[in-house]
Design goal:
The chain has 125 residues and is of the alpha/beta class. The protein is built from 3 helices and 7 strands. It has one domain.
Length: 125
C-alpha cells in the first residue's frame, strides 16, 4: 500500500469517528435510526488526496447505518470532500439543506458543524 492510500484511509477513519459519534447521539435522542447522508465533492482542480477513495471508504463503512441521498436533497449530515485546503466546496448554497456538515479538505477533517457552529464530540482520544 502506498502512502497516498494511507492518507485517504486516515482521513476516512478520522471522519468516521465523528460520524459514528453523531449517529449514536442522534439515536440516543430518538432520532432517525437511518439518517440521510450525502457527499458533495469539490471541482477537483488541484487535489492532493484521492477524493473518490475517501468517499468509497466512508460509504462502505456506513452502508448499513445510513441512507445515502443526493447532495441537493435535505440531509441530516452532508460530507464535503475537497481535494485541497482551499475548501471551495464549503459554500452556503451547498450546505443550505444540510442539518449538519463535516468537511474533509486536503489532509484535514473538520468538526461536525451546524449553522450554529461546531459540535465538540469526544472521541476518547
Amino acid at each position: 500500500m502506498n502512502g497516498k492510500v494511507g492518507e485517504e484511509q486516515k482521513l476516512a477513519r478520522e471522519a468516521l469517528v465523528q460520524i459514528r459519534a453523531r449517529l449514536e447521539k442522534q439515536r440516543g435522542m430518538g432520532g432517525d435510526p437511518k439518517p440521510r447522508l450525502a457527499i458533495k465533492f469539490c471541482g477537483g482542480c488541484n487535489p492532493c488526496i484521492e477524493r473518490g477513495l475517501v468517499a468509497r471508504l466512508l460509504r462502505e463503512d456506513l452502508a448499513e447505518s445510513v441512507r445515502w441521498v443526493p447532495p441537493d436533497e435535505e440531509t441530516d449530515l452532508l460530507l464535503l470532500i475537497g481535494g485541497c485546503l482551499t475548501a471551495c466546496v464549503d459554500r452556503e448554497e451547498v450546505k443550505r439543506k444540510a442539518a449538519r456538515y463535516l468537511g474533509i479538505f486536503g489532509s484535514t477533517v473538520s468538526l461536525i458543524r451546524s449553522e450554529e457552529g461546531g459540535e465538540k464530540i469526544s472521541t476518547g482520544n
